[in-house]
Amino acid sequence: MSKLAEYDGPILEIDKLSISFFTRLREIPAVMDFSCVVQPGEAMGLVGESGCGKSTVALGVMQDLGVNGRIVGGSIRFKGRDLSEMSAAELRDIRGNEIAMIYQEPMASLNPAMKIGKQLMEVPMIHEGVGEKEARRRALEVVTDVKLPDPERILKSYPHQLSGGQQQRIVIAMALMSKPALLILDEPTTALDVTVEAAVVELVKDLGKKYGTSMLFISHNLGLVLETCDRICVMYSGEAVETGSIADVFDKMQHPYTQALFRSIPLPGADKNARPLKAIPGNFPLPHERPPGCNFGPRCDYFAKGLCDIDERVPMVDIAGDDRHRSRCLRIDEIDWHAPVEASQTTARTEPGNVVLKMDKLKKYYEVAANALFGGGATRVVKANEELSFEARESETLAIVGESGCGKSTFAKVLMGLETATEGQIILDNRNIEATPIQARDTKTVADVQMVFQNPFDTLNPSMSVGRQIIRALEIFRVGRTDAERRERMLQLLDLVKLPRAFADRMPRQLSGGQKQRVGIARAFAGGARIVVADEPVSALDVSVQAAVTDLLMEIQRENKTTLLFISHDLSIVRYLSDRVMVMYLGHVVELGTTEQVFAPPYHPYTEALLSAVPIADTKVEKTHIVLEGDIPSAMNPPTGCPFQTRCRWKDQVPGGLCEKEVPPQRTMAEGHQVKCHLSDEILRGMEPVIKVAAE
Amino acid sequence: MGLFILRRVWVMVLTALCLTFVVFFLTNLYPNLEKLAKTQGNMRMTDEEVARWLDNRGYGAPILSKYGQWLGVWPGWTHETERGVTGRCIDGLATPEQAAGAPRFCGVIQGDWGYSTVFRDEVSGIVGTRLGLTGKLMLWVLVLMVPAALAVGVLAGMREGSATDRTLSTFSIATTATPEYVSGVIFIAIFASSAVGLKWFKGTATSAMEDANFENFFLPVLTIALYGMGYIARMTRASMTEVMTAQYVRTARLKGVSFPNIVMKHALRNALIAPFTVIMLQFPWLLNGVVIVETLFNYKGFGWTLVQAAGNNDIELLLAVSVVSVIVVLVTQLISDIGYVYLNPRIRIS
């Protein structure tokens, strides 16, 4: 059960790999003509939108494609041996021993009914035949390596007793138990919060160096790949379209898709008015509806009829002068890659109008039974929101930022009337609405305050046509007198969200994610909403679609003078579209100010950490690395004093342990800029900016 | 945990009280009582005579008082005539002095379950012996049914869509779709009929009451077990297929764990959580089957007693049988809840 013999070639060579899934109807090619090489100690990033085949490549390497999947061409060689020729027993020896994998959802990938220790010990016991004692010793060692506190206790606990970040560390520990030669990471941090993500990414990088492991890092997040990988491979619709070193691909991209991708993500410098994002037009083709010729052809700005749509696969070609930089485009030499972005339409900045919504010391506490199933006994109070005070004006975008558990969704619920406030006021047009549940609100109020939800896949009724769902909202808001009028209004709403009118008769399952979210937006604006709470409206969507949906929201807002409360954890997009930003931590507003004020020093220490944790896909950006220790404390048992004191790196700058004793007061730093911190003015003013853009 | 069980027991007691009251009310409806009076007294009694007969025996009291007496929380009725005193807690006719010495309460709580008019015996004794006999039957049913059903379910579910899966699934659907009175008759015809059958087993289980052996006891056990087995097997299979596609099973597979170990160590415990509740819910169903099978095989157990009591308007026996059934159902539910907590660490008490 030892490792394969030493081999000094590349760890992984994938050559012209094609993988298809076979259904009763047809063969669906998932990956076509994919080649890539991973050298020892190298980290390869695999980037693309969902459905582009990146996870299929990973499972192909693992030879675990399920019953329907089959490798139909090409080869995968691991340390020089063809994996597809190995027997089941040989494959078992390699899996978990030589190639290990880290998965997207840590909770789902750990066995819920098995103790952590046992799951970890299994690896060396299978592959090296060591005894239980030795296995336990090693498990303890690895758990210490992934920086988990109290390893003994962790080994004895079940997965559900750990937080998401801890679970992911356990999955990483499990993968590293046998010191594999190749580590495959399939979106390892997508399910985690940004600050936790930053810590996990740093851990993976350090351990990769320590053990000399090669990595195949799958992600849709270009910024993350920039931070972790040496080389990158961009995939589109089953094909690799561009591959090369990070520097080459990020700065000297040679494929229209890569270029379009970079232009559609909000990088520092993008601005919703002066430099709007450029969404990629059209939709991602389904595997069985791929166009002839170049897959990206129909969405490409440089599309040439008669060249790009000839039914022949476009080959990968080397880019002269660069190190292993290849691209799959027929017009590489014709396109001027350095041409500046076509100035898309710029709009004038809209001035915020009157105050429409005012929150005053809003509090929301939940009382929960200490033990939900076995009931009774003491109840505990979850302080979901503490003293929220702010104003929102007409046609203003106020972003609410924070990690999961910070109380941003609770706040949205209270505003919507799904919950009533414990204390404080919500004033909408000089009326108090904090104590009125949604059933008791009049139609006007309900129509005025609407919501766009995070997950467009779950929020549409699957058995009702799109038009019907919008008409239903119109009926409820008492818009239009007759059915014909309402139908007309519904078609106008479809125009508003730029969906073809024919979509009215479609069912939600026939729509893509971005289209569904547009329907969700149309529904929210059905009653002429004046305040729209957008709860992470684009985080479930693909990068190329995100820009289009964001722009749509902005456009509707400009026309209707809507107040947009944009709840998000993605600081890049917040910076791009919001006028003011409110940062929340454990139910407290720790910082509130205009976007420029929040994104520049002086920061609240939490904002500083949050900013440094966000991966930015720009090689010119330099970031200070601040890694927060530990997890977000539970709202059931918040720390005394300042909520952030358990993780704050500035804590020792405050004399007399004040942070542990008192909740800091809300301090006004500048006009409209409030920070909740004990740090002295000098220290706050002396803070360095976290994100620096190097001069070009 | 103790508090949890205590609460559950309290809820159980409340449920039992409500259910027994319903049964008590229904069995004590006037037509039933009239029929009782006429079978015990005289078929040609007039209406007044019936009323007097019932009054003399305490049946005339309001329903709540009667229920209280039956439970043993209300003083038992007494009836004085010039010949002596009769009463709920007094055997036959007694002098006033004897009557004064008799206990005031005598109901289920005091262990007095009443007198069966069919068997002419104390109800508690009858229920005790019959329950013992049915317990023996049930034990063997469980011994056969549970392991077989789990094995079938796990084998079918571990490779969804395979030939094994289809064969076993067909088998389990067929068994569940065949009620006991059909399968029982078929088994008797095939294995026990003296004319055409194989004569492997006996068609009656009467002798199994004293001395159960494979020959006289297998058919009734098999008949009940098969019916319940298909259902449990289907549930286990569904749960198993779901678990086998779970991400943590993929994790295990990509960790290099061999297939038998994946099934045994990783999948099994998770797959058993759902069927465990179903197995426990099967108990009430089995009681159903017991009624049919015991009558069919002439095995004089609990189900057979129920049929006798119901058929002969034996109120006290019927009540006792109902109470025992209610308790059996509630206790299995309690066990199912506790077992669920044990199998599923996610809801274990912190």
TrEMBL record, chain A:
PROSITE patterns: ABC_TRANSPORTER_1, ABC_TRANSPORTER_2
Membrane topology designation: Peripheral membrane protein
Pfam families, per the entry: ABC_tran, oligo_HPY
Subcellular location: Cell inner membrane
Molecular function GO labels: ATP binding; ATP hydrolysis activity
InterPro entries documented for this protein: AAA+_ATPase, ABC_Ni/Peptide_Import, ABC_transporter-like_ATP-bd, ABC_transporter-like_CS, Oligopep_ABC_C, P-loop_NTPase
SMART domains xref list: AAA
Family designation: Belongs to the ABC transporter superfamily.
Protein name, as recorded: Peptide/nickel transport system ATP-binding protein
The species this protein was found in: Lutimaribacter pacificus
From TrEMBL, chain B:
Signal peptide: none
Superkingdom classification of source: Bacteria
Transmembrane segments: 9-30, 137-158, 179-197, 217-234, 272-297, 317-343
Entries under CDD domains matching the protein: TM_PBP2
GO biological process, one term: transmembrane transport
Keyword Cell membrane: yes
Protein family according to the UniProt entry: Belongs to the binding-protein-dependent transport system permease family.
Record protein name field: Peptide/nickel transport system permease protein
UniProt source species: Lutimaribacter pacificus
